[in-house]
Amino acid sequence: MPVNSTHADYDLMLAAWLRARDVFAGEDAIKAAGERYLPKLAEQSQADYDAYRTRGSFFNATARTVEGFIGLIFRRDPTVKLPDRAAGVGSALRVFAEEVDLLGTSLYAHARNVVSEVITVGRAGTLIDWQGEGEPRAYVVRYNAEAILNWKIERVGGRNEVTLVVLHEYGRNLIPGTKVAGDEYDEELIPQLRVLRLVPGNQMTEDGGRRTEGWQYVVEVWQEKVTSRRYRKGEWVLVDQRVPMRLGKPLEHIPFVFHGSCHSLPHVDKLPLADIIAVIWITTGSMRITNTGCISRRCRRLS
Questions:
Q1: What is the Cα–Cα distance from 64 to 83, expressed in whole angstroms?
Q2: CA dist 40 to 47, 103, 200, 295, Å?
Q3: How do the domains of the chain map onto residue ranges?
Q4: How far apart are the C-alpha atoms of 154 and 254, rounded to whole Å?
Q5: Cβ distance 211 to 186 under 8 Å?
Q6: What is the reported pTM?
Q7: Other CB atoms closer than 10 Å to residue 58's CB: what's the count?
Q8: What is the SS3 assignment for 215?
Q9: What stretches of 20-74 adopt beta strand conformation (E)?
Q10: Which of 259, 254, 260 is nearest to 129 (CA)?
């Protein structure tokens, strides 16, 4: 099975997530999708169809509903209780709460972003990351539902543990011999997969052998081989592998949190606004698109 394989639930839900993204984005995204949401009539020429689509209007009830829910949830600022500043952990947590991602995002703003994702598509994820002992502090990275490609749950030490998470992202080209010529203003980013694994831990014995003891968290980074700016070979190459250490020991769990509308399990939830997104109103004569955006001169309702 290749590293870019996707989970069955991911394949099942991807179309719904993309549809929710388009609906949330609004009229421009709906019209840009063309016949995906607005089928072309048999008697229409391309010019007629383009004019037909341009005249349509889209009332974005979905985005307004998301904004309303977020306003209700955060109508009062959340209260975060941290240890006393005098304690070392208290001081560190206060710094973390003020900037959780090393990009200036506060814990409050990160929470709003996660809630917005969960309301829109019903799923998101947060990775707690660091590079190693030299990293001054941990930070979080948020992943959208479409970026969480694969996951696996296994029985570990009498518990159900997540032993695999595959995340899609972009990074600088690290594959030797495949650098694409550019300039200082053109950052070369290529698709990459961040694979989080929980594997049996190996320890060196006194006689030089190895024994399996416990489990450890391992990070792999795979990149898609690129030979030109427009051509990819579809071949994934392992460019980095490391075992993050804290206090001289590897982690025994994958520091990744799934966010869902009903739970924090890897299982995919139904979209909270699925019923609103799925409703298609077709209004006589007004050429109006509502919600997912069908246009027609006939009046009927589909759900």
A1: 38
A2: 11, 45, 56, 10
A3: 26-122+270-303, 128-257
A4: 13
A5: no
A6: 0.82
A7: 20
A8: strand
A9: 57-59
A10: 254
Q: What residues contact residue 50 under an 8 Å CB cut-off, 6+ apart?
A: none
- The Cα diameter of the chain in Å comes to 85
DSSP state of 146: G
The structure tokens listed for 43 are 């008697």
Torsion of CA 202, 256, 167, 162, to 10 degrees: 60
Strand positions, DSSP E, 48-147: 57-59, 123-129, 139-144
pLDDT in tens, the chain (303 residues): 789 999 999 999 999 999 999 999 988 888 888 888 888 888 889 999 889 888 888 888 888 999 999 999 999 988 888 888 777 777 888 888 899 998 999 999 999 999 999 999 999 999 999 865 556 788 999 999 999 999 999 998 888 999 999 999 998 888 876 665 556 666 678 899 999 999 987 654 445 555 556 889 999 999 988 665 555 557 899 999 999 888 788 899 999 999 999 999 999 988 998 888 876 433 223 334 444 444 333 333 332
Tokens for 40, please give them: 């072309």
